[in-house]
Write a structure and sequence with these properties.
Length: 802
C-alpha cells in the first residue's frame, strides 16, 4: 500500500509511471523525494505543478547533505527557487557551506532569489547573440551550432529559464532564415585535420622537463579527465563525497591554504622493504604527473615504520627509480622524521579516550571476527602509564599494543596504532622500541606535509574511514584520500614475498633479473623510462583494477627505441664465409647509417674484410620452397656493402656439419638484384648474449584454477638461453651499461651491467614480443629466420664481449 501511495505521489510530481517505479527501487532517493514532496504539499496543497516537481526530483537526486533538504524545499515550494540554474547554484552553495548556520541573505544573493528575468530581456540577449554571429548564420544556416547562441544568452542572463531561451532562439532564427530547406538537412562536412609535418612529430617526441614528452603531457591530461576531474580544489576538501566534517574543519582548511598558498600537493609513499615494480610506475606517474599538471609539488616519502624489513639498498633503489623515470621530488622525507610528533599525538588520543593499550596477541587479532578486546574500556590514566612503559621497553614484542577505538569499512575493529619492536632503526637507531603502523602513520604524515590529494590504490579503500577519523579525532588538517585501480600485468608476479621465493629457489638471479617486472629489472632489460611513462599514460587512471598484456608495454617501448636505439650488426649463431675474390688487398671501411630511415643522425664505420660471418640460418644447402637467402645458385646481398656474394664451396667437418663457406663477390649493380640482403660482421667482437622469454607459461601464474601447483610450478624452462660466443660489429666496443642498440634483423639489445669495459661486454636482449604469428611459432628453433620474416619480433637478450 505504501508503495502505491508513493507511486501516486511521484507521478503527481510529473514523473512517468516507469520513472516513478525506477525511483522506488532506489531506497535513498525515494525516501528523500517522498519527504520533499510531502513538505512541498504543506505549502502548495496536494497538487504540485510539473515544473516544481522536476525541481524537487533534481533536489532529491543531487543533494548529498540531507540536513539541507527541508531548507531547500521551502525555497522551491515558495517559488523563490524556480529554475534549474537557481537549483544548481543552491546545491553548490550548501555543499560549499557545510556548517550551520547558513547566511540566508548571502544564499539568496548567490542563488538569484528575487531576480526577475523578463521576456524582453531574453529577447534582447538572444538578438544580440544572433547579430554577433549573423554572417556565419546566413552562410551555414541551420547547420550552425545553435548551442553557441543559447550559451551566450545564458552568460548574460544567468538566472533565465533555459527553455525560454531555447524557444526565443528558435523563433528568432526561424524569422531570420525562414523554414528549413533540403540543403539544410544535409550533414555538415567534416573538416580534415591538418597532418603534422614529420619535423613537428619528431619535435613532439623530444624530452621535456620531468621526464615527459609533449605527447605524454597531453595523454596525462587525458587520463586525468575521468575520475580526477572530480577532485576538489585545494582547500575545498569538504566538497568530496564522504569527507567528514567537524566544527574545526573550516578553520583548519583556512590555515592549510595560508600554508600552501592553494598549491596542489601529492606524495609517493613507498615502503623501503622491496624494489618498485610496474604497478609502482603508474603510482609514480599519477602522483608526480597530477601535481605537475596542476603546477603543484610532489613529495617522495619513505614509509620507514618497519625496521625489520627495511634495507639501505631499497631506499637507494627506490630513489634511483623515481629519478630514472624522470621525476624530481619536491622533497625527500621519511615517516621517521615525524616520530616525535606521532608519539605526542598518540598520547593525546589516549587522553581523549580514543585509544588504549591492549594485550591481545597478534594471532588473536587475525581473522574476520576477532574477539573484542577486554582492555578496551580500561581507564585513560592506566593506558597512559602502560604506553609510557611500552616506550621505555618494559614489554616484550607482541605483549602490548596501542589500539584506536574505531570500526573500519571492512569490519576491522580497533586497528593497532603502535607495536613493540626491538630492532634498531636505520635513521633513529635505538631511540625507539615502539613503532607506528601504516593505519596510524599515513594520514598524519599527509596532514603534517599538507598533502591536498592522497592518491592510493584501491586496496586502501578500507582504510579511508580510519584516515578521516584519526585526523578529525586529533583536530588536525585532514587531506582527502582517493583510491584508483592498481595496474597488473599478465605472465608476471610482483609480490615481494613471491619474488624473494623466486630468488631463493634460483629461478631468477635477483630483483633486477630481466625476466621480472620490477623497475630495476625493466631498466636492466633495456626498457627506456619514456616507454614506461607512455605506457602508464595510455593505461590511464580508473577506479577499476586493470590487468594488461605485456605486449602493450612492449609496444610503447618499441616506439621509443625505434627513434633512439642506433643500428648495428650482430650474429648469434655464426657461420664463417671466405670471399675468394675480395676486391682489395686490405679490408674496406663501410659507412653504416645509425638510423637508416634518417641518415641525418649520422653513421658509424665497420670493417669489411675477406672473411665475414653470417647467421648459420641464412644458409641452406637444400632450401625449402620460399627460402630466399644464400643457397646453391641463389646469391644474396651483404647489407650496406654494395656487394653480392654467390656460393662456390661448402666446407664440412668430420661429422658432416657445415663449418665454413667459400664465396665470390660482385658489385650489386653489376648484375641481377638478389632476392635478399643479409646482415654480417667482419673482424668482430665476441660477446655473450642472453635471450629471454616469459618467465611463466600461463597468463595468471598466481591463479590456483589456472595453475593448481602454484606459481613456482609454472616456470618456463626456456625463459633464458645464453649465447656465449655471439659476434658483434666493432661499432659498439665503447658502449656503456644500459646503452641500447637495434641489431639488424634481430631486435633490440641493451648493454648489461655485468659488462666490464675493455674486457667483457654483456648484452641483454629486450623482450619485446609481438602477438604470435605463423612466423613466430618457429622462434625457438629459427630465431634469425623469424626476425627476417617479422622484423618487429623482438627477443630478450644480453651481450658480453670478449
Amino acid at each position: 500500500m505504501a508503495a502505491l501511495d508513493s507511486l501516486s505521489l511521484f507521478t503527481g510530481l510529473g514523473l512517468s509511471e516507469q520513472k516513478a517505479r525506477e525511483t522506488l527501487k532506489n531506497q535513498t532517493l525515494s525516501s528523500q523525494l517522498r519527504e520533499a514532496a510531502t513538505q512541498a504539499q504543506q505549502t502548495l496543497g496536494s497538487t504540485i505543478d510539473k515544473a516544481t516537481g522536476t525541481l524537487l526530483y533534481g533536489l532529491a537526486s543531487r543533494l548529498r547533505d540531507t540536513r539541507r533538504l527541508s531548507f531547500l524545499v521551502s525555497y522551491i515550494a515558495s517559488k523563490k527557487i524556480h529554475t534549474e540554474p537557481q537549483l544548481s547554484a543552491a546545491l553548490e552553495y550548501v555543499r560549499s557551506h557545510p556548517l550551520d548556520p547558513i547566511d540566508t541573505a548571502d544564499f539568496e544573493q548567490e542563488c538569484g532569489v528575487g531576480v526577475t528575468v523578463t521576456p524582453e530581456q531574453i529577447e534582447e540577449a538572444v538578438e544580440a547573440a544572433i547579430n554577433k554571429h549573423r554572417p556565419q548564420l546566413l552562410v551555414e544556416r541551420y547547420r550552425f551550432n545553435m548551442g553557441l547562441l543559447m550559451g551566450e544568452a545564458r552568460a548574460v542572463l544567468k538566472w533565465a529559464d533555459g527553455k525560454m531561451i531555447k524557444n526565443e532562439v528558435d523563433m528568432q532564427v526561424l524569422h531570420l532564415l525562414g523554414p528549413k530547406m533540403e540543403a539544410d538537412l544535409e550533414k555538415k562536412p567534416k573538416v580534415a585535420k591538418a597532418r603534422l609535418e614529420e619535423t613537428d612529430r619528431r619535435t613532439a617526441k623530444d624530452m621535456i622537463e620531468n621526464g615527459e614528452t609533449a605527447d605524454q603531457t597531453l595523454s596525462l591530461m587525458e587520463q586525468l579527465r575521468g575520475e580526477a576531474l572530480k577532485f576538489h580544489k585545494p582547500g575545498e576538501n569538504y566538497k568530496t563525497p564522504g569527507y567528514v566534517m567537524t566544527p574545526h574543519t573550516m578553520n583548519l582548511l583556512k590555515q592549510h591554504l595560508e600554508i600552501t598558498g592553494g598549491q596542489v600537493r601529492t606524495r609517493f609513499p613507498p615502503e623501503p622493504n622491496g624494489i618498485l615494480h610496474i604497478g609502482h610506475a603508474k603510482a609514480i606517474s599519477f602522483n608526480f604527473g597530477y601535481a605537475k599538471a596542476n603546477n603543484g609539488i610532489c613529495f617522495l616519502r619513505f614509509d620507514d615504520t618497519n625496521p625489520e624489513k627495511e634495507e639501505a639498498k631499497f631506499f637507494t633503489a627506490i630513489y634511483d627509480m623515481v629519478a630514472w623515470l624522470g621525476y624530481t621530488p619536491y622533497r625527500v622525507t621519511y615517516a621517521s622524521d615525524y616520530f616525535d610528533q606521532l608519539y605526542a599525538w598518540a598520547v593525546e588520543l589516549i587522553r581523549r579516550g580514543l585509544a588504549y593499550v591492549c594485550h591481545q596477541r597478534g594471532e588473536d587479532l587475525k581473522g574476520h571476527n576477532p574477539l573484542p578486546s577486554p582492555w578496551r574500556d580500561r581507564p585513560m590514566e592506566e593506558s597512559l602509564l602502560l604506553f609510557e612503559a611500552m616506550r621505555k621497553g618494559k614489554f616484550s614484542e607482541g605483549e602490548a599494543t596501542l589500539r584506536m577505538k574505531l570500526l573500519m569499512e571492512d569490519g576491522k575493529m580497533d586497528p593497532v596504532a603502535y607495536r613493540v619492536k626491538y630492532t634498531p632503526h636505520h635513521r633513529t637507531g635505538d631511540k625507539w622500541c615502539i613503532y607506528p603502523t601504516y593505519d596510524y602513520t599515513h594520514c598524519l604524515c599527509d596532514s603534517i606535509e599538507h598533502i591536498t590529494h592522497s592518491l592510493c590504490t584501491k586496496e586502501f579503500q578500507a582504510r579511508r574511514s580510519s584516515y578521516f577519523w584519526l585526523c578529525n579525532a586529533l583536530d588536525v588538517y585532514c587531506p582527502v584520500q582517493w583510491e584508483y585501480g592498481r595496474l597488473n600485468l599478465h605472465y608476471a608476479v610482483v609480490s615481494k614475498r613471491k619474488i624473494l621465493q623466486l630468488v631463493a629457489t634460483g629461478a631468477v638471479r635477483d630483483w633486477d633479473d630481466p625476466r621480472l617486472f620490477t623497475l630495476t629489472a625493466l631498466r636492466r632489460r633495456g626498457f627506456p623510462p619514456e616507454g614506461i611513462n607512455n605506457f602508464c599514460a595510455r593505461v590511464g587512471v580508473t577506479v577499476a583494477q586493470t590487468t594488461m598484456e605485456p605486449h602493450l608495454l612492449e609496444a610503447c617501448v618499441r616506439d621509443v627505441l625505434n627513434d633512439t636505439a642506433p643500428r648495428a650488426m650482430a650474429v648469434l649463431e655464426s657461420l664463417r664465409v671466405t670471399i675468394t675474390n675480395f676486391p682489395t688487398a686490405k679490408s674496406l671501411d663501410i659507412q653504416v647509417p645509425n638510423f637508416p630511415a634518417d641518415e641525418t643522425k649520422g653513421f658509424h664505420q665497420v670493417p669489411f674484410a675477406p672473411i665475414v660471418f653470417i647467421e648459420r640460418t641464412d644458409f641452406k644447402e637444400e632450401p625449402e620452397p620460399g627460402f630466399k637467402r644464400l643457397a646453391w645458385g641463389q646469391p644474396v646481398g651483404l647489407r650496406h656493402t654494395g656487394y653480392v656474394i654467390e656460393l662456390q664451396r661448402v666446407i664440412k667437418g668430420p661429422s658432416g656439419c657445415v663449418e665454413s663457406l667459400e664465396v665470390t663477390c660482385r658489385r650489386a649493380d653489376a648484375g641481377e638484384k638478389p632476392k635478399a640482403f643479409i646482415h654480417w660482421v667482419s673482424q668482430p667482437l665476441t660477446c655473450e648474449v642472453r635471450l629471454y622469454e616469459r618467465l611463466f607459461q600461463h597468463k595468471n601464474p598466481e591463479d590456483p584454477t589456472e595453475v593448481p601447483g602454484g606459481f613456482l610450478s609454472d616456470l618456463n624452462p626456456a625463459s633464458l638461453r645464453v649465447v656465449e660466443a655471439a659476434l658483434v660489429d666493432c661499432s659498439v666496443a665503447l658502449a656503456k651499461p644500459f646503452n641500447k642498440f637495434q641489431f639488424e634483423r634481430l631486435g633490440y639489445f641493451s648493454v648489461d651491467p655485468d659488462s666490464h669495459q675493455g674486457k667483457v661486454l654483456d648484452f641483454t636482449h629486450l623482450p619485446l614480443t609481438v602477438a604470435v604469428t605463423v612466423a613466430a611459432i618457429h622462434c625457438t628453433t629459427c630465431s634469425a629466420y623469424i626476425s627476417l620474416v617479422n622484423p618487429h619480433h623482438l627477443r630478450r637478450s644480453v651481450f658480453i664481449f670478449y
